[in-house]
Amino acid sequence: MTWSSALKQTARSGLTIERAKLTPVIAVRGAAGVALVIGVCLWRGSPALAVSSAFGAFASGLVTFQRSMRPRPVLALAVAGALAVSTFLGYLVAAHLPAFVVLLAGWTVLAGMAWAIGPVSGLAGTLTVAIMLVTVTLPTSVLEALQHAALIFCGGLVQAALILVFPVRPWGVQRDALADALAAEADYARRLRQDPVAPFDPAPLMDARLASAVTPRQARRRPVQLHGPRGLAERVRPVLASLADPVVGAPAEGPERDRARDLLQAAGTVLDAVAHAVRHDSPVRLPPEAMATLEVPASGPMLHGAARRSAYRLISLLADAVELTDEPVQATRPTTEAERGPGGREEGSHLLRPSVPRLVPVALRALHRETRWSSPIFRHALRVGTVAVCGYLLGAALPFGHGYWVPLTSVMVMRPDFGQTYARGVARFIGTLVGVTVSGGLLALAHPGPNVCAGLAVVFVFLMYLLMRTGVSVTSACVAGYVIFLLGIAGEGWTQTVEERVVLTLLGGLLAMLSYALFPAWETPRLRDRLAEWLTTNGRYALAVLDRYARPAEGRPRQVREALLDARAARAAWEESVARAEKEPVRHRGLSRTAATAAGAALATMGRVTMIMEAHLPGKDAEPSPGAAAFAAELRPALERAAHAVRERDRLDWSALRAVWERWDAESAGQGVALRAAGLLVDALDDLAAALSRGRGGHRRAVDGGAEGTIPPAQ
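The structure assignment produced for this chain is given below.
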């Protein structure tokens, strides 16, 4: 993609305004927290203290709107504490330019590295830099600096208290995540009726797993409905795929296929009903038609072989899902020490999330992993630190005054990837232009006093909380109005603020964009590494399943589960890299968009057929499969060679693996789920080789492979 095309695409995405579900009650609660601290400080303190405390309440409230599974009060207090520390340190050295520049550089680099911990931590780190730049411009002494820092923390404390006193839909994030996963599976079941190898995106299941991790305190209060359905959703998905597959499950045509379609339709109805019950905390309501379909016909079973086993398993799982969900939401089982396990691992009935103190070593390990020159996070931290310092010095040198708007804009728009940085830069400038025009016009026409400015600031912060998910340009306009009216409380001139805000915001956005052009961290050259990692983790998942067929008595279900989770994580990393690379103005470096699409489809098919094998794992008393053992023995070294070949742009060769499968096929006379699925797996690996060598031809084969070929993402 050329630079002009990339800039047009990112600008268009940044200016896009989306329709989003509004949460007015939560927005009112957040704005009330800001109004409360402003009112108290104006009543008992000074305008400068009101501005400081309002920034703390605003930032703490902002973080609680992010998609995080941690308790909202904990987020508010953690961010408020970080804001208080950063502000106090800034006050101590604000009068000494060299010392403040050193502090700003170091703190900004640390804030940039916070993206290694997660997006919420990255946003919190960005806010600490922004608040440091704004609040230290308010004149004060060291003693008053402590007072400012304490008030900023009190702003977060007020937000946390309001969340506890006025809870809005407790466990709502967790309920939505689980309900989305169940609804996605319901849609998957219905799509399988028409397309037996329809794709399935595991992202909702990954989100549901993330949402199911709780602290020990949360585990004692979690509603019953959030206990079992997620695990059942994980087990339902491979059964649905196995029933619908024309090679392993019901035949492509005939009465058995009609019966499979009826079961899939009923499964979709049941899963939708369970999802609705979980989302709205209500009983499960099922139509009698779905219940009748899930009963064995009076004439006897209509399915045979593996399809019949899948049907019986599906009916049992759906019954369990209804039974586990259709209960009153009361207390839940307590969490014992045995269930907790080390490091928040999945033990017993809970996935435990480490508490805040235990999160410190986890965060330090994440920072250590990213402290390397090739890391996009590390390069982002260096980039944003350099830009913050340059922007601050540039703003100080310009004759406008209020030069902190330059680094403030740069820090707020910069992200570890090119697309978000450029999209946010354009959106922030346009939104700021609108915001300062509206708010500046109101100030110029009405000349409001401090109390009126405080009221207008609360109105703008309410609009920002309400419209947060509609787009960066909208929220930037609201934030611009909020900041201008907030500074108006302290007596800032409107003409100065408007003119400076527009010019200095433009300079800050240009600095951010220029920095990425001069010191990039492109995702495109890393695509082959991401693809090799996905191939490796998919291979480990396949080997873990094949080992269960080869040695049933030594089966370790946890090994299969962990391999599946690793494969999902690698797939998510690949898809994120592809999405970023598509927006970058660089050459494809040997992996074109067509080849990447086809390669991703091939590896997704590899995961799908492995999932089908997992759905039919033998019991511990089953006979070992020599064919599966031989296939796994050849697959293991072949995967190592293939991963190296993907990275080095060499040719992939799966002929030896196909020869082993053909011997297995001849010895078993084509019988067995594992044998047929292994054949599809070899086909998927051949499609991967074709995708990487021929690009467009591989893509055509991936799409048109039919029942025994490959499909789009379905792991």
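Interim note for the steering committee: The radius of gyration is 28 Å. Confidence is low (pLDDT under 50) at residues 327-349, 695-715.
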